[in-house]
Amino acid sequence: MATRLAIREKQLETWTAIIQECRNSGMKTKDWLAENNISKDQYYYWFKQLRLAACMQSSGPQPKLPVESEKPQIVKLECADYQNNFDSCSNSRIRINRGSIHIEIDGGAAPAVIRSIMEALVDAE
């Protein structure tokens, strides 16, 4: 494992020098690669590898995330207030007055019914 790491570090050093030489040449990358017999695919592969290595170095060691060993707790929520608000809505009415058209809808009407009434109102204009 240590030899693989050493080989990888040597490759990164070599390609760092190659890429710096290309960048400092003042030539277009394509022309410099052709002149130095380096394939475009190989160049950009190592360019990406160097970027990844730089990102890994700058982020430092990865922090260990805490592992929760406890089971999640289930909490019961009371919805009594919600139900009371719903009941008060069903006792209310919706009134729409548009010119000579007067519409009154129960608060507990189904959304599909309200939608149909609104569509009919738009068509009546």
Secondary-structure-derived class: mainly alpha
Side-by-side strand order of the widest sheet: 1-2
Weakly predicted, low-confidence segments: none
- Structural domain count: 2
How are helices and strands ordered from N to C? HHHHEEH
Number of strands: 2
Task: Supply the number of helical segments.
Answer: 5
Taking the alpha carbons of the first and last residues, their distance comes to: 79 Å
Average of the residue pLDDT scores: 78
Outline, from the CA principal axes? elongated
- Major sheet description: 2 strands, antiparallel
Strand content is: 5-15%
Q: How much is the radius of gyration in Å?
A: 35 Å
Percent helix among the residues?
A: 55-70%
Features:
5 helices; mainly alpha; 2 strands; 10% strand; two-stranded antiparallel sheet; 125 residues; 2 domains
Describe the structure.
With 125 residues, the chain is mostly helical. The chain has two domains: 2-59; 91-124, no CATH class. Helices cover 60% and strands 10% of the residues. It is built from five helices and two strands. The chain has helices at residues 2-24, 29-35, 40-59, 80-90, 111-124, and strands at 93-98, 101-106. Helix 1 crosses helix 3 (40-59). The chain is elongated and about 85 Å long. The model has no long low-confidence stretch (mean pLDDT 78).
Give a quick summary of the entry.
The protein is mainly α and 125 residues long. The protein has two domains: 2-59; 91-124, no CATH class.
